[in-house]
């Protein structure tokens, strides 16, 4: 009965807290200077009373209007979560009470959706929830791994230390993701620019030359005729080309989301792709090592940690391999042996893991592996960027130059006969 009563009281407390409304207020301080701000309260009268308690003379207190298109705001990005993690870690380490820390961080958010989310987390904590329970209400932004780390910190009484580790982890992961996006952006940009330049030439430049050639009445060289035929096709069926391109992209994205076999096939093909595949492989290894090292250091059981790590690698192939390793470790195999069976981990990673297991410093060895591959990713992306700059010029030069030469061949031929 006592437990049920306590539960009901906590539920009632949470319900009452969730009914708070945000008010915009304008007040005069002791010097007569106008001050503005916002405050959460049950009603306007309580806001005025609080302002008077702070030595201010309230002028206007109004309920904060909702945005025209709702108060959801833009989506919460992983970078926002990384910044929040560093902020809450810093405040907790400085001795700021958790509820006050959330109130300060939420007040500084420009994204209404994230602000509301942090406010709800704060209200849940005020209502009696632990931090990992409150964060678990938003599994998209705060995934199972994040909540497990926070729970481990709460259980061990070292929440501020774990939050600092989580903040560093999120920052490292976002840094790797940014590098991968940069690496994939350049090839996509080369293809897009080459395609757009080709379309402009075929649609607007070639028809002008085509009229000139028609009036001249001379036989056209094969390259010139090919360019003209391509121009006629693009002019007649540009809409079909557009539908095919958009349809292919949509079909690829949908198939990748709905079919695990296709997603696995696509991921394996990307890992085998020259240069890009090597970057993706090193990124997956860095994420695996960093994530497993953080969870192991926080005191999360190894098997449970590997279950969460599988989804953090950013690769379906490596995720499946880690789940296979988890099953092997669960029946008593050493992790380095399970790792070797997958055939996806370099010998250096296996040997470092074996040394870590033997010496009892697995987390330390994993961090060294993560640092090595993070540096490799950085160097590979920088090298790729340097190589692609001249490659872009070569590709565009071949496409544009080839078309221009094809169009001028008949002119050169006519000039030679004069």
TrEMBL record:
Gene3D superfamilies membership: Type II secretion system (T2SS), domain F
UniProt membrane topology term: Multi-pass membrane protein
TM annotation in the entry: 183-206, 236-255, 391-411
Source species, domain of life: Bacteria
UniProt-listed GO biological process terms: protein secretion by the type II secretion system
Family in the record: Belongs to the GSP F family.
Residues in Type II secretion system protein GspF domain copies: 84-207, 288-410
Cell compartment(s), UniProt: Cell inner membrane
Matching Pfam families: T2SSF
Keywords: Cell inner membrane, Cell membrane, Membrane, Transmembrane, Transmembrane helix
Any single GO CC term annotated in Swiss-Prot or TrEMBL for this entry: plasma membrane
Listed name of the protein: Type II secretory pathway protein
Chief site of localization: membrane
């Amino acid at each position: 009965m006592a437990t049920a009563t306590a539960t009901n009281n906590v539920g009632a407390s949470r319900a009452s807290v969730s009914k708070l409304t945000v008010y915009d207020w304008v007040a005069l301080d002791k010097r007569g200077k106008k001050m503005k701000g916002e405050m959460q309260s049950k009603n306007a009268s309580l806001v005025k009373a609080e302002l008077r308690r702070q030595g201010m003379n309230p002028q206007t207190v109004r309920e904060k209007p909702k945005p025209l298109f709702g108060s959801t705001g833009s989506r919460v990005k992983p970078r926002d979560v990384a910044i929040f993690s560093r902020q809450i870690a810093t405040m907790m380490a400085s001795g700021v009470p958790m509820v006050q820390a959330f109130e300060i961080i939420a007040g500084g958010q420009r994204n209404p959706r994230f602000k509301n989310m942090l406010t709800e987390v704060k209200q849940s904590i005020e209502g009696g929830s632990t931090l990992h329970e409150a964060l678990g209400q938003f599994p998209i932004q705060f995934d199972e791994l994040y909540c497990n780390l926070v729970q481990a910190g709460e259980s061990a009484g070292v929440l501020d230390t774990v939050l600092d580790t989580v903040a560093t982890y999120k920052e490292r992961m976002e840094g790797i993701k940014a590098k991968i996006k940069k690496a994939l952006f350049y090839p996509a940009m080369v293809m897009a620019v080459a395609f757009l330049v080709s379309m402009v030439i075929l649609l607007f430049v070639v028809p002008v030359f085509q009229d000139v050639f028609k009036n001249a009445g001379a036989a056209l060289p094969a390259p010139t005729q090919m360019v003209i035929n391509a121009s006629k096709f693009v002019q007649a069926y540009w809409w079909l080309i557009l539908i095919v391109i958009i349809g292919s992209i949509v079909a690829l994205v949908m198939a990748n989301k709905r079919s695990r076999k296709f997603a696995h096939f696509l991921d394996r093909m990307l890992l085998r792709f020259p240069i890009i595949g090597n970057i993706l492989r090193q990124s997956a290894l860095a994420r695996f090592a960093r994530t497993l090292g953080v969870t192991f250091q926080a005191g999360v059981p190894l098997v449970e940690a590997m279950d969460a790590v599988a989804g953090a690698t950013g690769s379906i192939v490596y995720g499946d391999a880690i789940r296979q390793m988890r099953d092997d470790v669960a029946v008593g195999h050493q992790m380095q042996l399970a790792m070797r069976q997958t055939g996806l981990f370099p010998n250096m990673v296996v040997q470092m893991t074996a040394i870590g297991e033997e010496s009892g410093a697995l987390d330390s060895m994993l961090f060294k592996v993560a640092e090595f591959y993070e540096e490799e990713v950085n160097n590979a992306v920088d090298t790729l960027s340097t190589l692609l700059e001249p490659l872009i010029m070569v590709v565009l030069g071949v496409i544009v130059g080839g078309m221009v030469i094809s169009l001028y061949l008949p002119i050169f031929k006519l000039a030679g006969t004069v």
